[in-house]
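Entry 12.
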Amino acid sequence: MDARETPLYLAVLVAALLVLILVISFACLCIWFQRRTIRSYRKRVWGEMNLLLQERQRISADLHDELGALTAGIRMSLHSIEPASDRDAQTLDRVQVHLHTLLQRMTEIAGDLLPGLLQAKGLSAALQAAIDTYNNQGILRVQLETGPLPGLPEGTSLHIYRITHEIISNTIRHAQAQQLTICLQCTGSQLVLQTSDDGQGFDTEKAFCKKTGRGLGNLINRAALLGGRLILDTAPGRGTRYQLIIPL
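Predicted 3D structure (tokens):
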């Protein structure tokens, strides 16, 4: 290389290095800003989730305590009424039945808003109780396998509980399966929920184009709110497997 060309070569090299440094710095800045935005979004979402959870707790308590007590008082008052005729007696009986149904529905709604067992005993016990209910119906055999779980925030536990319910519901409605196996365990710094059924499977592209895709969308959205990811493995004729991975 000619001696006169050396300064020009060095200048070009330095300029190229500066441009490369600027590009890398800009990329790092973009990544940092994106991550900060995501953290801020998740923090805001978690704050809203906690407020929603508190509101669920309040509504659930009001349904169970205040309206439940009021309904029970109405039933006692009806018991004290002496019907003047057989027709009045039949009317009172119907009202009693309706009140009993109303009380049952309020209890179910209160439980759906915030399962009491989830608060009292934790996620594993609440899931097992829900699965026992499904098994007693005889529609689908559901098996739950759980390992030792760390203490989880109520919001996280509630979302995992809802996700599991959604998967069971989807399996009953669409899979034509006989058996569903659910495994929940902690592996290192991750919580992993895995499910598999022996049903007919489905075409994911077609499913997302139909109304059934809403259920899949709900699962994906809930997973995203937890900062996790949902992996779906299915195809027509070979069952369906979900894997939910949540960082702890």
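Annotation: The beta strands are 141-146, 179-187, 190-197, 229-234, 240-247. The first strand starts at residue 141 and ends at 146.
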